[in-house]
Specification:
Length: 264
């Protein structure tokens, strides 16, 4: 993916104050391409999900761990599992966050995940191509490969880095460090397809974006590139109540809500 070209196009749209032509049919194209190989199974908390080769297909508002991420065209099929190296990475992140992560607040935690992913996966397109040529020399379509292979080798693009971040955030949610819901969002514009991580706070409803492939990270409506990450139907939220919103307000309120969530 031509990230530099895409980012240049975004800046052009920003200067002209107009959104790019974003299309949200990426996952639908994936499902149509492999429709004959899909089954449907119930996943608690998510309802009926499409399964491919024994894994649920990762898409918008779908679980991450134990899922599989497919391309709109046949390429490597990335499987997200609790491999030892993935668990070690998660524990490294937890140590970085400290013993009382609620003191940081949700935006700082998402930023820490974002930076951690970029630190662990510095290699970009060239390194990813080299890695794939080595581990999948024949490049068969939809051949399964673990996300941990890319994490261990420090290489990845927009179909790898957000997956790693979403895996980490999903574990933080399960461990009651975070209070929201995480998703891998993907769309395309005139420059091509792209994917990123989206986190929605349970308490405030605010939307945080992490795009470790290109770089933006922060609250959706504060990003200069907000329309690129804007889902159809997204509406700018009203002003948050500082007593109820743990996202970026009083440490006392944040700590109280974290304790309620952690121990109930």
């Amino acid at each position: 993916m031509a990230h530099d070209a895409r980012f240049g196009a975004l800046l052009t749209h920003i200067e002209n104050d107009e959104p790019p032509n974003v299309r949200w049919n990426r996952t639908d194209r994936v499902l149509s391409r492999v429709e004959w190989q899909l089954t449907r199974e119930f996943v608690p908390g998510y309802g009926m999900c499409e399964f491919f080769k024994g894994h649920h297909v990762i898409g918008r508002d779908r679980p991450i761990t134990r899922g599989i991420y497919l391309g709109s065209h046949a390429r490597e099929a990335i499987v997200v599992t609790d491999d030892p190296s993935m668990l070690r990475a998660y524990h490294d992140l937890r140590r970085r966050l400290g013993r009382v992560p609620w003191r940081l607040g949700e935006p700082a935690i998402i930023r820490a995940v974002h930076d951690f992913v970029r630190e662990r996966m510095p290699g970009g397109r060239a390194e990813t191509r080299t890695l794939l040529a080595r581990v999948l020399p024949d490049r068969p379509g939809d051949e399964k490969i673990a996300l941990s292979v890319f994490v261990e080798n420090g290489a990845g693009v927009c179909r790898h880095r957000p997956l790693f971040g979403a895996y980490l955030v999903e574990k933080l949610i399960r461990d009651r460090v975070l209070f929201g819901r995480v998703s891998i969002d993907r769309a395309e514009d005139d420059q091509g397809g792209h994917a990123w991580m989206r986190y929605v706070s349970r308490w405030s409803g605010r939307i945080l974006i992490s795009d470790p492939a290109i770089g933006p990270c922060g609250e959706l409506f504060s990003l200069r590139e907000e329309w690129s990450y804007l889902r159809p139907g997204d509406v700018r939220p009203a002003e948050a109540n500082p007593l109820l919103d743990p996202l970026d307000h009083a440490i006392m309120a944040t700590g109280l809500l974290w304790l309620i969530w952690r121990y109930l």
